[in-house]
Every structure is written in structure tokens, then in C-alpha cells.
Amino acid sequence: MSEQLSSIADSLTTLTNTLTTLVSANASSKTSWSKMALEIGGITKALSKGSHSSLSNPTNPFSQVLDLNTSNGLKGWQHGVQLPPSMENMDVKVGPTGRKQLRALGDHLRHNGYHSVLNIPTSGTGLPESAPGKTAGGQEIPAVNLSDHVNLATDMQNLTRENTLKFAGFIHGGLQDGLAVPSKRVQKTLDLTTSGNDGLVANMKQQLRIRCDMLMTILQQVTNQASLNSLLAQKDLFTWTKETDGTEFYCGLTVLWLIFELIEPKTVIDARDVEKIIEETTLVKDCDGDVRTYFSTVKKARDELHSRYGTDRMNDQRFTEILFKNLNTVEQEHFKRFISTNYTNWLSDETFDLDKFMAAVDKIYTGLVTSKEWTTSAPEDPKVLALTTANKSMQKKLAKLTSTTTSAGSTNGAGNLKDGKEMAGPQGSTGWSVEKWRTIKKGDSITRPDGTKHFWCDKHYSGKGLYMKPNVSDPPGHDHAKWESFRERQREKAAKRKKDNDDSSVSSNTPTAVKKAKLVVNRGNGKKTKFQKKVEVLVTQQGLSHAKALEAVAAIYSDGAPSDSDDDSYGSSN
């Protein structure tokens, strides 16, 4: 018998030393999860040398106050963190596959002394009452303003993260800290010798703290290492500092909540719902082709996933695939070409910058909207195509005319290209109205790629010479005297129209371009001409002012207004 007692005494000595090491390690933020698990194994091995019969029901932490300064308290601690054989090889993984094991762990905790720490209050101040409560037998018990308790293991869906953090604040806070999320996670020192209800509440908090430590010990034994490491991203939520010596430790209750939050069906379903927002939201149908609305919707969902579940949930690779899938549904030719080019770059470039790409997409989208070219579908109707082409042409000519009017003939430094053609001189000069090839003599006549023949005349372009189209009435060749006669007749007709159709509403302050436009449009002598109809279309359908519409029609359809530039043909009906 003495030998057995000696063996138990030796085991308890070893246990005390190992437990001291464990508590010190648990307080240090530098100690790894795996190292602490090995130290826990040391406790189990030490106790295995003693009598297992001594770990009877009275030492169960559910039914006994734990005083770690006594041998019974140490035995109760060890008994509380020891798992049954069926759970010794448990390896809980964060994710749907870990749900069954986590629920089994929750059942074990509820029936083995952890009910007090798992039963989380959701209401009340958390402050001590003025007097203690009493049991039916007259025993005094702590009285605290806490109510509406919800069990984490069985009713997690009825709890929030804030509920858990508030209860952790109550457990580790001082006597008057109450049920609240602390601004700083510092475990306050408790006076366990205080009399009255305050003393009972202080001891109640001490027991809850012990159970939080024991709970952390169990989690380190049963939780997959990678899963525990993934929680370190939220380390600030469960790391506390002891007021007495500044050492750090982890709150087991908070860590357990975070594991439940990641695994339980409610949370997994919530995460999947957020993923579906990204996967199923369409640019064209759901966002009416608005790229900014689409980007805002899917980015908000992705940020929510990353903040709650980490960046592995909807990583950049998957997110980018979904973006390209939606952006490729847009048929606008410039946009589609841009997306196609960037998709090729993404497939081949490991340094593809997603944020820069999205910013570039937003920029080109904004430009297309501003220029009224944005559309999500391809215009298949030939009439629509024709109208689109005509509209673009009119917009270009209108922009050119407006630029000429506002700049008063000044050079804008844009070079000698006009509508993709190389001109003889820069904008603002005489050469701006003549294509360069017409000023370079390569013979008395040349034939253009379209089959038309042109003849050289030394009397045009201020005596420098110019290629001209042949006479219409008596080809081939170019008769300069007949050309001059034709131009003179055109000027006389224009002057007569101006006199007959002079609009009194055109004041001396009206821009020259508008005066010219009115002459062209009003040549119908009271009848609504095709030019007037075009003006009406531009005003009612394109939103142009009446003056701008006149300018546009004049620029496109004018065939007789006088001009200072040379014309390269004469005598035709056009």
C-alpha cells in the first residue's frame, strides 16, 4: 500500500511540474499549438503511473470547484481535459467535413463539466447583484445580472460573435467590467477572499477562467493543426494579457466559437450564399450592362468572404475567371477586343494585376458610355448598322466643324491626318482641305486604286499644281477654263439663294457656320426639304441644339455654298 501511495505521490509531483510548464507555455504567444499538445501528453503519461480509480466522479469539474493549488484540483483539471478512447484520434478540420466530429466534441463538453462556459448569456449587465442568491437548501450562490443563456454546442445559430466576445469579456474582466466587449483584452486580477456576493462572483469568474484554459487544452488536442493555424489571422479576438505579469494566453471559449463559426451548417450555408452572389450575378441581365454596378456587387461579396473565412474562399484565380466569363458576354466591338486581349494576357502572365485590370475596364466602359457607343449586344439589323455608321460619320464631321468654329482657324497641332487620310498641310492651312497625294506630280495623269483617273493642272493650289478629276461633259482631260466657269456659276447660284432666303432671325452676331447652314437648309423655298428633315431628326433623336443640327447638316450635305478651297471636280450633279 505504501508503495502505491509513493507512486501516486511521485506522479502528482511530475504532474505539478508538467502543469506548471504547460500554464507558462500557454501564457506565451510564442509557444506553438503542437508543442502544447505534446506537453498535455506528458500530463497524461505522468498520471497513468498513478491509480485511475482516484479519478472518480467527485473530481469531475462539472460537480466540483477546481482549486489548482490542491491535488484534487489538479486531478480534476486532468480528468476534465482527458478525452475518451473514441475521441483520442479525433482530428477536427475546419470545413463541412469537420462538422460531425465537432458536434461529437460539443456533446462531450456538455456532459463533462463545461456547461457553465458553453451556456452563453445574451442579456443583462453582467454586474454583481447587491446580495447573493440562495439554493432551496439555503446555500448562498453568486447572483449576477445575466439572462437568456444560449448553449454554444447545441444552439449556435441563435448566437452571434458579439455574444461570445461579451461573455469572454465578462469572464476575464474585473468584478465591475460586466457583460461587454472590452477595448483591451487584459485579464483583471480578482480578489477571491472578498466576502459577500462580490466574493462569490469573483470565484465564479475564476472557475470560468479555469474552464476556458481547459477548453483550450482540449482544442489543441483534437483540432487539425492547419485549422488552428488558420485561426491565427483572428488572433486579436482571442489573445488576452494577464494584468499580473503581462503574459499572454488564448481564450478557449472564443477559439471554440470561431471553429463553430467556420464549420457549422448555418455559417457554411451563409458562405455559400455569398459565393453564389459572385458566381450567379450577371453583368447584362442583373446589372443592365452597368460595369460599375457589377464590379461593386461582386467585389463587396468577395470582401465579405475574405473577411469572414479567409482568402482561400473565392481566391483571385476563381474570381478572375468569373469576371472574364461575364465581361465576355458584352458584344460592343471595342470592349470585346479589349477583354479578349486581356484574357490572353491573364492566361500567360503570372504577374497579372487584377486591380489594375478592373480599373482599366472601368475606364474604357466610362469612355464608351460618354461617347454614347456603349451597348451590350451586337447590332445585327443592317438598318441599325447603317444608322450607327451614319451617326458616327455625322458626329465626326460635327466635331470637326465645331473645332473649326471655336478655334477660329488656329492650328491644334494634331498633325496632317484627317479621317485617316494624309493631308497636304496642317489644320488651319489651305493644305488641310487637299489630300497630299494630289500635290505630288508623278506624270500628266495617274489612276487611283479605285480606278478613277486624275489629270495634273499647274493652275491649282496657288500655282503649285494639283491632280484634278476629268471633265464630266467632254472627257478625258481637265479644262481649267471650263472649271473656272463652273465655279463662277456655282457662286452666282449661292449668292441668289442667300438673297432669296435670307432669314431675318440670323443676326450679325450669328456664327458664319450657322448662317451658311441656314442657307443650305432653307433652299426649299417654303417646302420642307430633306435637309430640314435631317435637322429635325438631329434635334429630336440625337438631342442636339437647333444651331448644332444646322451646322451638322450643312457640313454633310452642302453642295453649293462658296468655299475658298479648290474643288477637284465640276459639272456633275453631285
List keywords for this structure.
single chain; about 575 residues; mainly alpha; 20 helices; 12 strands; rod-shaped; disordered C terminus
Write structural notes for this entry:
Strands 5-6-7 form a 3-stranded mixed sheet. Strands 10-11-12 form a 3-stranded antiparallel sheet, with no helix packed on it. It is mainly alpha-helical. The chain is rod-shaped and about 130 Å long. It has helices at 2-27, 33-47, 71-81, 99-110, 115-118, 161-172, 196-222, 225-231, 235-238, 252-263, 265-280, 291-309, 316-327, 333-348, 354-370, 382-407, 480-500, 512-521, 530-541, 546-557; strands spanning 119-123, 133-134, 140-141, 147-151, 186-187, 239-242, 248-250, 417-418, 421-422, 445-447, 453-457, 466-468. Residues 25-62, 405-414, 503-510 and 558-574 have low confidence and may be disordered. The N and C termini lie far apart (128 Å). Helix 10 (252-263) crosses helix 11 (265-280), helix 14 (333-348) packs antiparallel against helix 15 (354-370) and helix 16 crosses helix 20 (546-557).
Brief sketch in words of this structure:
This protein has 574 residues and is mostly helical. It is 51% helix and 7% strand.
